[in-house]
Amino acid sequence: MNTLRTALATTAAAVLGLAALATAPAQAAAQPAFLTASEMPKSSTPWTATQVFTGVPENGGVLCASYKIPAQNSRYREFSTDLDANGVQVTTVARTEADAVKLVDTLRTSLANCGPLLEQQNPGLKAVSASHGKLAVEEGAWVYSLDTADPQIGNSDIHLFSVGRDGRTVTLVRWGQTGDLKDAPLTAFRTTTKTAVNKLH
Questions:
Q1: How many CB atoms lie within 10 A of CB 112?
Q2: If residue 32 lies in a helix (H) or strand (E), which one and from where to where?
Q3: CB within 8 A of 116, min separation 6: which ones?
Q4: Helix, strand or coil for residue 10?
């Protein structure tokens, strides 16, 4: 799984160029709230959460969604369990609501096309992306999955992603572990996504 993460982090550097979407500092406002460890989908071992950091994860954090949001407008929290489940939430406040809409659209396109892009850039990798619909929360949230398998090393990983918006604020949540889509807590992840968007403001 670490090998795949390294490859995907490299991919993340060139997929999108979104820095122009939120180059100006956000207007002064209360900081959006984040998910807690207990609000992640239940796992066989408890989740732990880091503090909320300023900026974006150094390794890209959300795989195909190379969001490149300016660090001064963004914050993130990482999640992990004692086994192999892991996740991250990244939240940004765009300069305007129109910029936030553009950011959501760009991230959705990136996640929907993630599988074919990874196969192209990583020969031998099998990767399938799928959309799992829109959630009725604030201005909307969308759920996607990425199912990958590397026959050469025998790894199979599944990731769930969601992108949601409340006004100028956009949040992206990722959950991942070893396994296949049938192993993923899709229903629970939808609940996690709704909670994440509801907590933004």
A1: 16
A2: none
A3: 127, 129
A4: helix
Q: Which residue shows structure tokens 């949001």?
A: 69
Q: Quick one: 155 exposed, middle or buried, by C-beta within 10 A (0-12, 13-18, 19+)?
A: middle
Beta bridge pairs of residue 142: 134, 163
How long a stretch of residues is the chain?
201
Cα(41)–Cα(179) distance, integer angstroms: 15
What confidence tens digit (pLDDT) does each residue in 56-108 have?
Answer: 887 666 677 655 566 678 999 999 999 889 999 999 999 999 999 999 999 99
Enter the pTM of the model. Answer: 0.84
Buried b (16+ CB within 10 A) or exposed e, 30-67: eebebbeeebbbebeeebebeeeeeebbeebbbbbbbb
